[in-house]
């Protein structure tokens, strides 16, 4: 029994320290953050303090059945985000094992590891908050989905074209279907390093661990959504006038939609806000904003000429015969616009 206990503790001390080192390297070289780097290093050293010789002596790698266990997903990582998420899970799981079995070995170690686990959770939330805002800052094209028999293939084709931001919007499906679709889209976005937003439904966003939610003017109060989602998730807000834009900024929106620029069946009956509202946003909006509403490959230059540097589209991609090509076209036009009007630092998560 003691040998088995020691082997469990030895394996999980190694696992936690290895995972922390992966996270530490990103804090050091990806974020250039001295404080976070030092924090990870301190945790590794604290774990090393508990990794006594008696635990190492119990190691029996040749007879360990776990060394041959593997999973196909372990062979590849789709993005830096995925690397970090996998290693945060590894660290947190290992710390939980150390906490439970440590109660048998040394109560003081179990207590110390428990506190470390909570601190690692906090670091994970912080890094994901940084990540989401950096990707948001760099994502010039935003796809809002519409119901389609080819929903997943169309979205994946756009992601292959470089799309960085997807919103799932479906006013027709039942909740079970919405949940399944949102879950699948979340997985696709994660595979390609893109952000995934759910339209209207905070509960659905939480259920599938989306990156945030988008609220219309008639949806739940912003403060309620923030309370439920927390500070580390994104909340976008639709705006149709300068007054609504000012209100969205004041309430703490992470980004806003500006439109509809042109009349669109997506918002049937809503008059177009026009290019004048785009010009107003270009001069007054202090947070990321997306011109939206009837934008396509034919009128994109008018929208960019009015001052937009980010656009959101629906039909232009969802109904395209070649979504990848159309996505690349939009991104090329937006990048050309940004090249002459740089506004923020590049996303280090793509380094």
Structure in words:
- It is a single chain.
- By secondary structure, the protein is an alpha/beta fold.
- It has two domains: 132 residues, Ferritin (Up-down Bundle), CATH 1.20.1260; 212 residues, Alpha-Beta Barrel (TIM Barrel), CATH 3.20.20.70.
- The chain is 57% helix and 10% strand.
- Strands 1-2-3-4-5-6-7-8 form an eight-stranded parallel beta barrel, surrounded by six helices.
- Helix 6 runs parallel beside helix 14.
- The longest helix has 32 residues.
- The chain is elongated.
- InterPro entries: Aldolase_TIM (IPR013785), ThiamineP_synth_sf (IPR036206), ThiamineP_synth_TenI (IPR022998), ThiD2 (IPR041397), TMP_synthase (IPR034291), TMP_synthase_cyanobac_bac (IPR016229).
């Amino acid at each position: 029994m003691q040998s088995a206990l020691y082997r469990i503790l030895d394996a999980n001390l190694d696992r936690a320290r290895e995972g922390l080192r992966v996270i530490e390297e990103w804090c050091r070289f990806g974020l250039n953050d001295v404080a976070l780097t030092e924090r990870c290093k301190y945790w590794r050293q604290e774990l090393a303090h508990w990794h006594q010789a008696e635990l190492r002596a119990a190691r029996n790698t040749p007879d360990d059945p776990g060394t041959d266990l593997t999973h196909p997903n372990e062979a590849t990582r789709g993005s830096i985000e995925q690397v970090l998420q996998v290693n945060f899970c590894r660290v947190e799981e290992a710390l939980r094992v150390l906490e439970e079995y440590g109660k048998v070995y040394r109560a003081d170690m179990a207590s110390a590891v428990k506190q470390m686990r909570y601190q690692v959770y906090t670091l994970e939330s912080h890094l994901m908050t940084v990540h989401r805002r950096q990707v948001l800052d760099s994502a010039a094209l935003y796809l809002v989905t519409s119901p389609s028999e080819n929903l997943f293939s169309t979205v994946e084709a756009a992601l292959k074209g470089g799309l960085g931001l997807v919103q799932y919007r479906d006013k027709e499906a039942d909740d079970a279907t919405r949940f399944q679709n949102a879950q699948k889209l979340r997985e696709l976005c994660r595979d390609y390093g893109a952000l995934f937003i759910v339209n209207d439904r905070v509960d659905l966003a939480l259920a599938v661990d989306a990156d945030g939610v988008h609220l219309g003017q008639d949806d739940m109060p912003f403060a309620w959504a923030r309370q439920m989602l927390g500070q580390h998730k994104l909340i976008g807000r639709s705006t149709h006038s300068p007054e609504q834009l000012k209100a969205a900024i004041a309430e703490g929106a992470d980004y806003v939609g500006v439109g509809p620029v042109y009349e669109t069946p997506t918002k049937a009956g809503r008059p177009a806000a026009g290019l004048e509202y785009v010009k107003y946003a270009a001069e007054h909006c202090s947070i990321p904003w997306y011109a939206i509403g009837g934008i396509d490959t034919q009128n994109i230059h008018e929208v960019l000429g009015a001052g937009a540097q980010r656009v959101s589209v629906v039909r232009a991609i969802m109904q395209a015969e070649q979504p990848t090509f159309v996505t690349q076209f939009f991104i090329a036009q937006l990048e050309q616009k940004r090249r002459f009007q740089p506004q923020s630092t590049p996303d280090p998560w793509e380094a």
